[in-house]
Amino acid sequence: MTKEEIINMEPSVVWNQFYEISQIPRCSTEEGKILSYIKEFTKKNNLTFKQDKIGNICIKKPGTPGMENKPGVVLQGHVDMVCEKNAGTKHDFSVDPIKLIMEDDWVTADGTTLGADNGIAVAMALAVMESKTIEHGPLEALFTIDEESALTGALELDPSIVGGTMLFNIDSEEEGIFYIGCAGGVTTIGNMTVAEETAPAGHKSYELQVTGFKGGHSGGEIHEGRGNAVSIGARILRDINSKTPVQIHNINGGGKHNAIPREIFISFTADNPEVIVAAINKYSKILKNELGNPETNMSVKVVEENTLPKNVFTKDFSDRLLGILFSMPHGVIKMSRKVPGLVETSTNLASVVLKDGNIKIETSQRSSVMSENDEIADKVRTIMEAGGADVHFESRYPSWEPNPNSNILKLFKDVYKREAGKEAEVKAIHAGLECGVIGDKLDNMEMISFGPDMEDVHTPDERLKVSSVTVVWEFLLKILKEV
């Protein structure tokens, strides 16, 4: 889509900002260019801002005439995005803009993640801040960094840069649903120094390719039973290994800690091609029966490589690595007894990567009950350590306890019912939201999370519903006027 095509959509002020943001590289931990854009935006619009040491920016705007003494509202979103692309897609996330595509009522990207998570929040907040006609009380726009990889911005937020008493987090993905609670979580990482030996004589080299899985958000979609490519790859290769000796020499699967892995590639040596062919035929049928819907595009195959590597992992190391990956739990651990339909505790086997002689296994655990979160993380640690990995925890963040009696929720429900003619849904979410961390830092801050319809975030199938953006934008303007 050209810039002219996208800004001709309504609301044009939002789509103009969304287009500009899409042109700016902003992978997690690499947000310098988008932060510079926001700073220039404040100067251009004669606004003030504060920035803390970690990089978060909070823009401030006075209330419009007659509304100066209303409660201060903070519009909040994160500036980074998950950077994933399909195999074969030529895209350099460090320099290339996102290529936007229109499909019916949806905006998506050409073979990459779209960045609507959370670019749409940044676009809406900037559109409000630059407007000369929108009515509102004292207003702030808080833009946090590195939400997707580690919640770094929220965890390191200097609370002194924020002054409002109500926070609108625009980072949910279902129009008409207001979120008032979220899971906490932790990332559990294992590292193993590779042990190698000379490749065995008489063996050939093969690559196991497990691809085409849907992937998705490890919080929002963990309950859907989508296939985990890393788990499946380990399952297949372990079965082959039980019938003919296998030694790995390269492995790369999954991506971000909060994304269900879509593919894995494992190079290995073996001496019995008949066993390999039989295993592939066997699991093609098994997986179709187990995962046929929603995994309609999955593919499992082995290709013979042209050359035999000089070195391979020792048999003991290969076996221990496969044992860890095969034994690692993935998926829903427990459903909530308090909130019907809510996943209470889960774990995600996110990635396994070989780099510079080290195997890194990354997992993430989530729970709305932090003691349960710590328990499943400790189980994951125990499995890794049993296989010889050195394990550490990163980015532990708190849950957000729901408050169904908050004033902000009552306002949102009343306005939504009046405008939409139906009741809004009120939920807690299994995914981690920055509200949990920010609320832990800012006492007495009332918070709510909402947003337009988005699907398949954190994957190259990510898309944003155009008509839903219009609805949420108009709703936001009414809320700002009435808060």
Describe the overall structure:
The relative contact order is 0.18. Strands 9, 11, 12, 13, 14, 16, 17, 18 and 19 form a 9-stranded antiparallel β-sheet that branches. The model has no long low-confidence stretch (mean pLDDT about 95). The longest helix has 19 residues, at about 275-290. Helix 11 packs across helix 13 (about 465-480). The chain is elongated and about 85 Å long. The protein is built from 13 helices and 23 strands. About 30% of the residues lie in helices and about 30% in strands. Strand 4 (about 100-105) and strand 5 (about 105-110) form a beta hairpin. The protein is α+β, with helices and mostly antiparallel strands and about 475 residues long.
Q: What labels describe this entry?
A:
alpha+beta, 6-stranded mixed β-sheet
Q: Which consecutive residue ranges, at least 5 long each, have pLDDT under 50?
A: none
> How would a textbook summarize the main sheet?
9 strands, antiparallel
Counting helices, strands and paired strands, the structural category is alpha+beta
From the alpha carbons, calculate the radius of gyration and give it in angstroms: 24 Å
Strand content: 25-35%
How many runs of DSSP E, i.e. beta strands? 23
Overall pLDDT metric: 95
Distance between the termini: 36 Å
Number of helices: 13
Task: Note the overall shape.
Answer: elongated
What share of the residues lie within helices?
25-40%
